[in-house]
Every structure is written in structure tokens, then in C-alpha cells.
Amino acid sequence: MAAAIILAGFSFALLWAAVIPYNEAPDEFDHFAEARFIAEHNRFPVFDKEPDFIHTTCYSPSGPCFTSYAAYPGLNYAISAGFMKLQHAVTGEPYHELHFAARLTSVLAIPVYLFFLWKTAHLLLTQRLARVTALMAGAFIPQVTFIGGYVNADTFSLAAGAAVTYLSVRLFLDGWSRHMPVYGGVALGLLALSRANYYPLFGLFAVAWAFAAYRAWQKDRTVRRIVLSSLMTVALAVVIGGWWYIRNLQLYGDPLGLETIDEAFDALAPLRQTPADQGATFTSLLFDDPRWRDWSFRSFWGVFGYMSVFLNSRIYLLIEATLLVAAAGLVIATHKALSEHGRKVWQWGTSWAWLMLVLLVPTAVVLSLWTSLYNDYQPQGRYMYAALLPVILLASMGLHSLWENRVYQQTVTLFVGGGMVLLNLYSLVFVLMPLYYP
Amino acid sequence: MKPVRALAVLIILAAALSAGIFVWAVRVPFTQSVSGEPKQPLFEITDGHRVSQTLKLRSDGLSGVDVTIGTFARSNSAILEMTLARADDPEAVLVQHQINTAQLADNAPHHLHFPPIDGSGETEFILTLTSPDGTPGNAVTVWFLPADAYPQGSLITDGTQQPGDLVLGLHFRPRAVDYLRANPSHLLKMRGPEDAWKLALLYAVALATAALAVGMMVRLVRREGGDSPADFPLSLAVAAVLFLLIGLWVASSRL
Predict the structure, then answer these.
(1) Any idea what DSSP says for residue B255?
(2) Which of A139, A247, A397, A401 has a Cα-to-Cα distance from A231 of 20 to 30 A?
(3) By residue range, what is the domain housing residue B69?
(4) Where does a domain end: B174, B197, B228?
């Protein structure tokens, strides 16, 4: 059954990729330009140095500014370039027309993310219905399908992040396995080649690793295995993901590439001010700026185009109401577990895994706030997708914990699963299609 | 027939009926934008000037038009009159709207909303703006795009066709059944037959896999049911009623 749901999630992303016209999604031309450059030149572009590539542009000395993604990790673009080269070899079509081929990286990342969502749900949710609710929700959230349908770095990051989340939960629950250093190293290496908003997942993995190491040390009191496994994981992650940062260091003297972009902006727009420069703070953005809150929330679930195409506002209200019900269920479940088992719950890896997943949610929000304050004011839900798996799993857990009644349990799965499929179809057929094919 | 099976059949019939009512009665709101860069203000619309934009619409259910009005960053008091008529009979005005320019924000879209015009698809309309009491220094303007951003229509000022188009938002609320009937042919026109067939195939695959996923989910829900055989039909009925109520609640909103 999980395979059928994952296949459906994949085919929806494929359909959306075929329906959404090119560049009707945030900065798609910028992402596509990088994939095209790699396909045409067989190498990554150098930031602001290529004659036939996007250069930093500022529209006035106080901004706004616009630049390429050349300083950010480019593995996802290289994969897109691979698909473009394949299509070019088969059909002979020019690279600048191969938008659909470039989108395939995003499309293919969707089943990978869903696979790890399912595996994580298997570890954390004991009820089968709760697991199916989580997978159905994760597969058909319109925003997820949307990012799976255009060229970007988010979907690749989502897939790598989902793998790291799964491995972290496994570490909490089962401790080390023989293959964990290999799996962990590969997943962390890919995460290192993802967008910076997914970096909190390094923290999650580190805590899970420390937890598993402590448990292992308690068991046999040997440090050697812990050190060797840790070194192997880090070494593999560095081999897979470190080359990009070494390249950046050599080219720009800046491994992350962020300062390079800032310097380019400052040179062209010396009067540019971030919201923080204008006096905005974390609390003012979160509590006094309804636009930041609303847009972040709405675009977590479904806002399309260049953040310009919204769903019916009542749909967002409905999602809010469902999440509130889930939150009530979580409070009840937590209270029940604590009153039944007391402090004993902290002896279980499951409790620690849940706690860390809960903490990921505010961490992702704070990171998105930080980006809006110190970089660019962009209240976008996808910037918090490091917490997508936790949100889905917590919502499913909460909804199914509210009431043990069987009719209620069945209704929750039918309502959330069926509802998400309907919402996804509604978004495509009645929101996007009329817009692009009126 | 067992009561449980009868209930299930009843639920399926009710769901099919609800879906039919939904598609027949519910309207699908969407907006078509005529925008872009560069754009610029036209002249002051004073008495004697007439600005028109013809609109050849593809869709049924035209329900509103936005024009971007500039006040020259001052306070005006003239009245701006907007009318909408069929292009083949411009004297028979379908919609008339008088705007007190004193209340307008500078360079902001002004919304003209009206009940959906069924049958507006493939029909040509003309939107006209005049200001009978507008005088130089006390009149507003509208923004336009010098490039041809809307090939289906033309900008006409004082009876002469001009290059470019007004900056517009065209709002539609066609009935879902009309939209679903017309959309495939629009798709065919815009994407070409080869692309449209590929899309149709992808639609078929997506719907088939979604049906498979939902079917397997429903089977699991049934298997995980409680002791009573009535549990599953009851859950199905509750979910169906929830979907129906939510569908009607969402559809009754204009936002």
C-alpha cells in the first residue's frame, strides 16, 4: 500500500511538472540557468565571473538585488543537467527548451522523501492508521507537489533531509547498526549539498548520534567503536559533500558562499538595508507582522506562482483547525504518557526522538525568521521544510491520539487522506489550470 | 441486501449526487492578469477623453475587472465612469460603475465586481472609462503597457487604436461544469495537440495511481475496523458528510 501512495505522489509531481508553465514558480529561471550552464559547459559556473551567465544586479543603490545560485551547492543542478543532456542526446532539442528534463530532479526527489517519511512513520507511529494518515498527507500536500514540479534546490534538500531525519530517529530507537556509519555518512554528505535552511538536521543527527553513543557506552564501556564509527561517518560525509565547500574556499575564500553574495550586493547597493537594519526583530516579525505569519503558514501548505496564487482562504482555516485538533491530541497523549509512566518515559529512545522532532519545529521557524531579518524578507513556508516530517508525524500522532474510538480513528484517516488528495486535485484543476490555460 | 451493504450503496449514491451538484452549481473563481514591465500612466482622463479596452475572453463567467488608477499623487474630486458592454453593441451597457476619485489610492488597482456573465467565453467586450466632470489638474489616469501584453484585445483612446493594453485583472467565476467543459480545448489551443495528449496521459496515470492509493487506504481502514460491522460504513458516511459540508463552505466563499 505504501508503494501505491508513493507512486501516486510521484505521478502527481510529474503531472504538476508538465502543467506548470516554465518560470511560473519562484526564481525558476535562475535555477534553470544553472542547470543549463552545467549541461552546456560540463562544469559549475563561477559566481559573477561567467560572461554567459547571470550576474548580480541591483535595481538601485538601496536594492532590491538579484543574483545567481552559483555560490550555493550545485549537485541538484548537476543532476538536472544530466537529464537535460540525456534528452538533448535523444531528441536534439536545444538546452534552453529542456525545462521538463531539468524538473525531473525535483520530481524524483518526491518519492525519495516519501519513502523516508514512511520509514520514519513506521518507527514512531504504532497504529497502522496513523502511519497511513501521515503518508497520505505527506504525499499530497499541494505545496510539496508544487516544489516537486519545478526546478529548485528545495526538493533535493527535502529528500536528503528526510533521510537524515529517518536515520536520526533510528539512532534514538535502535542505536547503532553495522551499516549506520555508511548510511549516515551518505545522508549527511547529501545534506551538506542541500540548502542552508536544512542545516538544523545536522544538529538533530548529532544529538541522535550522541544519544546512541551514550547508550552503546553504557552497554559495553568501550570507546573505540564509538570513535571509529563517528570518524567513518564524518569522513564519508566530507567525501560526498565537502568538495563543494573546498571549491568555494578556493574560488571565493568563503566556504558557504554567503559572504560572497553579501559582498556583491554591498558593492552594487551600498544603501541596501535588511529588515533588521530597519528595526525589525524576531518578535516584531513573528507577532506584529501578520503578513509574515500568514504567508509563511499558507505557503507551507499551498501558495503557487511567485508567491502570488493562493488557495481559498477557508482552506487555510480548515488546515489550522485540523492542526489545532492535532495539537489537542498531542497534549492529551503527552499527559497520558507522563501520568502513566512518569520519568520513566525518558529512558525510551522514542520519547527523545519525539522531543527532538518537536524542537525542530521552532528551530525551523527561527531560522526562517533569521533569513527574513538579516538576509531577505521572504515569508515562505518551504524555508521551514526541515520541519515538514516532524509536522506531518506530529499532526498524525495528535489526531489519532485524541480519541480511541474506532469510528473516529477510521474517519481521521479517510478525512485527512481523502481530503489531501481532493485538495491536491482542486489546486491543480481549479486553481492552476484556469490561471495558466484560461 | 444486508443493512450495512445497503448503507454503503446509499453513501456512494449520495456522494455521487453531491459531486454532481458540486460540479453543476459551484463556481470556480480565478483571475487572469494583464501585467508586466514596462508600464506607464496614460493621459489625464478629462471631459471629452475616452479610454477603451476591448476584451476577447476565452472563459465564461466574467465577474470583475481591475484597472490600475493613478491620481498623480494628489487629491481629485472628479467622477470616473467605467462601463462594460458587448463590443458588437456598445450602447447596451451591461455594467456601469461610478468611482469617486477622491477616495482612490494612487497607482492601486480598482476593482469593478459584478454578477458572473455566463456565456462570456469567446465573446468580445469593451471596457470604457470616461470622466464627464474631469478637468486638467482634477482628473485621474490609468496605467497601461506599451507592449502588446494582451493580444486578444486592443487599447483605444479617443476612438483611435493604440499599441499596448491597459494593466488589467480579469476575474472569472464560471460554473465548474462550464469550466471543465471548456478547459480541455483551451489547453489544446495553448499547448498544441502533441503536448495536450501527453498531459492527458499524465492526468490519466496520476488519477489511476491516486485511485489505487485511495482504494488501498480505504481497504486498510476497513480492515482496521472495530468489532461492529457498522463501524466502517459509519466512518465512510461521516467522512463523506464532512467533505460535502466543507466543499459547500469553501465554495460559498468568494476569497
Answers:
(1) -
(2) A247
(3) 30-174
(4) B174
Name every residue whose Cβ is closer than 8 Å to that of residue A62 and which is 6 or more positions away in sequence.
Answer: A269, A271, A272, A273
Here the cell at position B32 is 487572469
Mean pLDDT of the A211-217 span: 92
What is the rounded CA–CA span in Å between residue B101 and residue A274?
36
Which residue among B199, B216, B253 sits closest to A18, beta carbon to beta carbon?
A: B199
Average pLDDT for chain A: 94
Separation CA B69–CA B57 (nearest Å): 22
Among candidate residues B174, B202, B225, the one where a domain is terminated: B174
Can you give B22-86 as a three-state secondary structure string? HHHHCECCEEEEECCCCCEECCCCCCCCCEEEEEECCCCCEEEEEEEEECCCCCCCCEEEEEEEE
For residue A272, the 8-state DSSP code is -
**Could you give phi then psi for residue B162, rounded to 5 degrees?**
-115, 155
C-alpha cell at A153: 534546490
Q: What is the pLDDT of residues A164-197, one digit of tens each?
A: 999 999 999 999 888 999 999 999 999 999 999 9
Tell me how long chain A is: 438
Neighbour-count burial of B86, counting CB atoms closer than 10 A to its CB (0-12 exposed, 13-18 middle, 19+ buried): middle
Nearest CB to A413 within list B191, B198, B217: B217
Helices (H) and strands (E) in chain B, counts: 3, 13
Query: Nearest chain B Cα to A10, which residue?
Result: B206
* Chain A contact for B182 (CB, 8 A cutoff): no
- Where are the domains positioned within chain A? 2-151+276-436
* pLDDT score for B254: 57
Tens-place pLDDT, residues B141-164: 999 998 888 888 999 999 999 999
Pick among A24, A310, A406, A424 to test the B interface (most B CBs inside 10 A): A406
Cα distance between residue A51 and residue A37, in whole Å: 11
* B167/B80 same-domain check: yes
Cell numbers standing for residue B225: 475496523
Give how far A197 is from chain B: nearest CA, Å. Answer: 31
Each residue of A153-170: b (16+ CB within 10 Å) or e?
bbbbbbbbbbbbbbbbbb
